[in-house]
Design brief:
The protein is mostly helical and about 190 residues long. Helices cover about 40% and strands about 10% of the residues.
């Protein structure tokens, strides 16, 4: 079977009963994905996806478990966890869709009234260090620094991606969770 190259491929009838996704009401990453797909393709995307009878896990990480176990064939899930399982010998691979992967960022900052602001500043210094980027690369995450090579050799700036705006996520996730529950019945 050919490898899916676009998000619309998850809607193809040949993948009926073979798709796995996370639930936006339980997983922030799944929520970000659903908001992005809704903004890009409209809610009709999910009305078509439901016809393919996807397995819906709580966590976005469940997609990797479903594929590794052979229960499902494809899904939108975390690249780092899938690559970790692949390196351990599991039959799984990662491909980024030609019509934009969804980039989910994990912002970091110091709270205005933090009880230990100097400790927080030390953490931020570490967060942007070469050492931390190397640790990210070793766990198949994209490093934050350009002077550290990713585990796969891929560079984030060479991947076509879509990134939700923070404001959109704040309003969008509650909106899509309600629609999701209505459309998928979970």
């Amino acid at each position: 079977m050919t490898r899916p190259r676009h998000w619309a491929d998850l809607l193809d009838a040949r993948y009926r009963g073979q798709v796995t996704v996370g639930h936006p009401g339980f997983s922030g990453v799944a929520g970000a994905w659903v908001v992005a797909m809704n903004d890009k393709f409209g809610w009709t995307y999910f009305e078509k996806l439901v016809q393919n009878q996807p397995k819906i896990g709580r966590s976005i990480n469940d997609t990797v478990s479903d594929i590794v176990s052979g229960e499902r064939m494809i899904g939108g899930g975390p690249d780092a966890l899938a690559l970790e399982r692949k390196a351990a010998g599991s039959a799984i691979d990662v491909s980024f869709p030609d019509d934009e992967a969804v980039l989910v960022v994990n912002p970091v900052g110091i709270l205005k009234d933090a009880p230990h602001p100097n400790a927080a500043r030390l953490f931020l210094n570490f967060y942007y260090s070469r050492e931390y980027s190397q640790a990210l690369a070793e766990t198949y995450n994209f490093p934050l620094r350009s002077d550290v090579r990713s585990a796969t050799g891929q560079r984030l700036d060479k991947i076509k991606y879509y990134r939700n705006k923070v404001e959109r996520l704040a309003s969008g996730i509650p909106e899509v969770v309600a629609k999701w529950r209505e459309t998928f019945g979970v």
